[in-house]
Amino acid sequence: MKKIGFIDHSIDEWHATHYPAMIDRSKLGGEYRVAMAWDEGPVEGRKPLAVWSREQNICAARSLAELVESCDCLVVLSPDNPEHQERLADLALRSGKPVYIDKPFTACRQGAEACFAKARQYGSPLMSCSALRFAPALVRTLETEFRQGPPTFVSTRGPGRFSVYSIHQLEMLVSALGLGARRVMRQGGDQADVMQVGYDDERRGVITLVPASQFGIALGSAGQAVKVLDSLEGYYEGFIDELLRFFGTGHSLIAPLETLEIVSLVECGLRAHASPNVWFELPARNV
What we know:
The chain is of the alpha/beta class. The protein has helices at 14-25, 49-56, 64-70, 85-93, 109-122, 136-144, 162-177, 235-249, 256-273, and strands at residues 2-8, 32-39, 59-60, 73-77, 99-101, 126-127, 153-158, 183-189, 192-198, 204-209, 216-221, 224-229, 280-281.
């Protein structure tokens, strides 16, 4: 059985607490277990590593180096504070072992490029994505309704603040529309935060953050009725299965350029939030 190690800024958070049981329930779960955890804590209001580890029946690593040395597969978690992820991932990316970095991947495109470059240098397979990409209804729709060609229009909806939760909608948008976003513009207001994504061809994308809403997506193309998916379920199960496949094969289904474009959209979107109704150009690709 291969050992998974969790690296976190503060381990007492939703993903670290729920992923172990999801991994156990996966059809590949019998081959993997979360064996060790380490964090930078303590953080006020959250359980320290020793308490969390005892409750989860997971070994608390004495150091980050011990965890990286002892585990076969590494998961870097800091979902509410993406500014820490690049630093937290440094030793893992030098290990030569498969590394999953939770979303948001990094706080900026430059940091994301540095992570991929380090992973290539040390031969460490690297994957990062939102679980929403693996929503069964979305995967099935793209494989059937759009088997002759990808959609040209995508509109997504979901909850949360842009800096943390936009990644989920942008992951769906890029997985459906593909690469090539050129510009973004923020519209809306406090009750409906809207961002348009512009391309140099006929493709168009829109994401909308609405408080307390469910994730949803609408997809369409010329001469075809818009397909609306109002409720997306089962995405965590699909994601965990794919995560464990990645750990086994060292191959991620998500192209690095897709992850880099998503990071660029978040980074540029944050700038657009300060100046609504103005188009902001995405930076040129370096890799």
